[in-house]
Every structure is written in structure tokens, then in C-alpha cells.
């Protein structure tokens, strides 16, 4: 019996399953060794249709829709008790206002259903962990304080950070001992970050838009929360490095590129910086989690790399590519980073968080769900 329980996959619900990030969750979880999508939920207008009917011609992934989800009947995401009853935990990618998202994610948590969210609504809730698993998995410890506030025993909310920071925050974490204290970053962000394809957004063809609402604030502040620490039951953000950002939308489907300048208190050599990048690993690598990249950060020596077309799918989109590291005349060093914004930066990052949470014992089978 015990062995059977071990072999049973945890049953997962996707909230906001019909949108682009919801679709990415569904494609990433196809054949996942630990998790199985058994419930899809979306807005009331999709409820009652099969997933295939609800998505219709709006399937945005390059791989076909998994057969296993096509006939699942979409549930109304607002019927919290009903959706929560059949799952062990949920991924959240709902499209609502921030206040609505905060409320509904906590409502799910209060049904004793853990919520792993792709949304930004809870990223600054003091007792909600915002985690890049290779960098700050110890922040998951704040969950115990959150459960006290929510009055739950197994329900909680955990989030992953914004897609815009994935191409440079890991480098800053890898270089922590050299004390980076000032950073300038410009991100060149793909249109899938807005949930769009070129078919949906023809004005992006051969165009650059120098504004993405709210993105610069997230890009400047979120790395500080990742690099912060747990104190008195809340996550307190780090004071350094001070980061200033510009975020630009570019005509690329997948892949956010960052051009970054850094000042360090302790002056490293280029060789030391590269060594820290390529040897940087964390809990996901230690535990061999299913979605973990074997090598989190690769360093590319060629002058013209990383490139979106050549490198965005490094480690199935879960790794980060860094290149063009060199000394700078104003700052100490500059480099270019690249990450896959809807894999590592969105759904994949959330799946890796969930794998971490399962491995650490925060997510398990609901005792009242039949085997």
C-alpha cells in the first residue's frame, strides 16, 4: 500500500488554464514524473466546455495540445471549494486584477490547497515566499508563519518572481561574495511575456516599444527580495545592490535578453566571475529535481552569444546563458544574459518551485482524496 502511495502522482489543478502561461503549464506537465494535471479551471465563460473547446484556435504552444487534457471539462475558477476538492495543489496563472488574485489565491490556500503562483499579486506579501529555487529556497520557511496567519495546516501561497529578472539575478547571486552594489540593466523582452504571438500583435513585427507597464519597478526591486532574508516571520529585502532598469519590448517570440553593468566592492577577475557562474548550483541540482537544469548557468565565450535563436532553449529553457563578460570603463564589468521567459521565467520556474516544495515536504497528497 505504501509503495502504491509513493508511486501515485500528485493531482494538480491549473487556475487560468486557457491563457498562455496556463497552456505552458499544461505542456510542461505532460508526462511529469510527480504531477498529473487532473483539473483545469478558468473564467466562467470557459466553464463547462472541454479544454479543447475552451482554448479553440488560441493554443499558442509550438507542441500539440496534450491528449490527456483535451477532454477535461473546464471548471469555474471562482468555485473554489469545488475546484480544490479534487486536487492536491494548484498552479495559478489567473488573469484578474491584483486584488482579485490576492483574494482568490488565499481562498484556495484556506481550503488546505497549496497554491504555487505565476502571478505578481503576492510577490510582496511579507510572509509569502518568492523563490528562484537555486538561489533562495530557504525562504520557503516563511510558509509556517503564513499558515498561522491563514489558519491552515497545509494550505499556503508561494510565488516565483518576474520573468524579466531571470537573465541577470542568478549572476548577481552567483557573485554575492564580491559584493555587487550598483547595477544598471536593460532588458529586451519577448512578446510572449505579454501573452502574445506575432499573429495577435502585428504591430510588434519589425518594431520596438520602449515601455512595458510595471516592469521596470519589478526588475529593480524583485532581485532584492530574492537576495533578502527571513527575519521575525517575514522576508526582509536586501538593501544592495541598487538596481536601475529599462525594459523594452522587442520583436522576439520567446527569450528575454539583458544587457547589464555591475560595480563590485571586492574587485574580482574575469576568470573568478566566470568560475562562479558555471559552478553555481543549488537545491534543485542537489536533489536532482525533475525540471532542474543540470547546469543552471552556462558561460559562452563567443562574441556573438548568447543569441535568442541559438540559446533560448538551453537546458530545455530552464537554464540561463551569459556571455560578453568584460571590464567596463565606467562600471567594473558588463555582460549579456538570456533566459526563456515563459519556461524558466514563468511556468517552468513555478513547476521547479513546486518540485522543491514537494521534496521539502510542504506539498503532499491530501489525506481526504481517494487513491
TrEMBL record:
Residue ranges annotated for the Semialdehyde dehydrogenase NAD-binding domain, each copy included: 11-143
InterPro entries named in the record: ASADH-related (IPR051823), Asp_semi-ald_DH_pep-lack (IPR005676), NAD(P)-bd_dom_sf (IPR036291), Semialdehyde_DH_NAD-bd (IPR000534), Semialdhyde_DH_dimer_dom (IPR012280)
Classification via Pfam families: Semialdhyde_dh, Semialdhyde_dhC
SUPFAM superfamilies according to UniProt: Glyceraldehyde-3-phosphate dehydrogenase-like, C-terminal domain, NAD(P)-binding Rossmann-fold domains
Record: active site: 163 (acyl-thioester intermediate), 256 (proton acceptor)
UniProt keywords, alphabetically: NADP, Oxidoreductase
Any GO BP annotation: threonine biosynthetic process
Tagged with keyword Coiled coil: no
This enzyme's EC code(s): 1.2.1.11
Enzyme class: oxidoreductase
Single GO MF descriptor: NAD binding
The family this protein is said to belong to: Belongs to the aspartate-semialdehyde dehydrogenase family.
Cited PANTHER family: ASPARTATE-SEMIALDEHYDE DEHYDROGENASE
Name this protein carries in UniProt: Aspartate-semialdehyde dehydrogenase
Provenance organism: Marvinbryantia formatexigens DSM 14469
Gene that specifies this protein: asd
Amino acid at each position: 500500500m505504501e509503495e502504491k502511495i509513493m508511486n501515485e502522482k500528485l493531482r494538480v489543478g491549473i487556475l487560468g488554464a486557457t491563457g498562455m502561461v496556463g497552456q505552458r503549464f499544461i505542456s510542461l506537465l505532460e508526462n511529469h514524473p510527480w504531477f498529473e494535471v487532473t483539473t483545469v479551471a478558468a473564467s466562467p465563460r470557459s466553464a463547462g466546455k472541454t479544454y479543447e473547446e475552451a482554448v479553440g484556435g488560441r493554443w499558442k504552444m509550438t507542441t500539440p495540445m496534450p491528449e490527456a487534457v483535451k477532454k477535461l471539462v473546464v471548471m469555474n475558477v471562482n468555485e473554489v471549494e469545488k475546484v480544490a476538492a479534487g486536487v492536491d495543489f494548484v498552479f495559478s496563472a489567473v488573469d484578474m486584477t491584483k486584488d482579485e488574485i490576492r483574494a482568490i489565491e488565499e481562498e484556495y490556500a484556506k481550503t488546505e490547497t497549496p497554491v504555487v503562483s505565476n502571478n505578481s499579486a503576492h510577490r510582496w506579501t511579507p510572509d509569502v515566499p518568492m523563490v528562484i529555487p537555486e538561489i533562495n529556497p530557504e525562504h520557503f520557511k516563511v510558509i509556517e508563519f503564513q499558515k498561522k496567519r491563514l489558519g491552515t495546516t497545509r494550505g499556503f501561497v508561494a510565488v516565483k518572481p518576474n520573468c524579466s529578472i531571470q537573465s541577470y539575478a542568478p549572476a548577481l547571486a552567483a557573485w554575492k561574495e564580491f559584493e555587487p552594489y550598483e547595477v544598471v540593466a536593460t532588458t529586451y523582452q519577448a512578446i510572449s511575456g505579454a501573452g502574445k504571438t506575432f499573429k495577435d500583435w502585428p504591430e510588434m513585427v519589425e518594431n520596438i516599444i520602449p515601455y512595458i507597464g510595471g516592469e521596470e519597478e519589478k526588475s529593480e526591486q524583485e532581485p532584492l527580495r530574492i537576495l533578502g532574508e527571513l527575519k521575525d516571520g517575514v522576508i526582509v529585502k536586501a538593501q544592495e545592490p541598487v538596481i536601475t532598469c529599462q525594459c523594452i519590448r522587442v520583436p522576439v517570440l520567446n527569450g528575454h535578453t539583458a544587457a547589464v553593468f555591475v560595480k563590485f566592492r571586492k574587485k574580482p577577475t574575469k576568470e573568478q566571475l566566470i568560475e562562479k557562474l558555471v559552478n553555481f548550483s543549488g537545491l534543485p541540482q542537489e536533489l536532482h529535481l525533475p525540471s532542474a537544469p543540470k547546469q543552471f548557468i552556462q558561460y559562452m565565450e563567443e562574441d556573438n552569444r548568447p543569441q535568442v535563436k541559438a540559446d533560448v532553449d538551453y537546458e530545455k529553457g530552464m537554464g540561463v546563458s551569459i556571455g560578453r563578460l568584460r571590464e567596463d570603463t565606467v562600471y567594473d564589468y558588463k555582460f549579456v544574459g538570456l533566459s526563456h521567459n515563459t519556461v524558466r521565467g514563468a511556468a517552468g520556474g513555478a513547476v521547479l518551485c513546486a518540485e522543491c516544495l514537494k521534496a521539502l515536504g510542504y506539498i503532499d497528497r491530501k489525506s481526504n482524496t481517494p487513491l
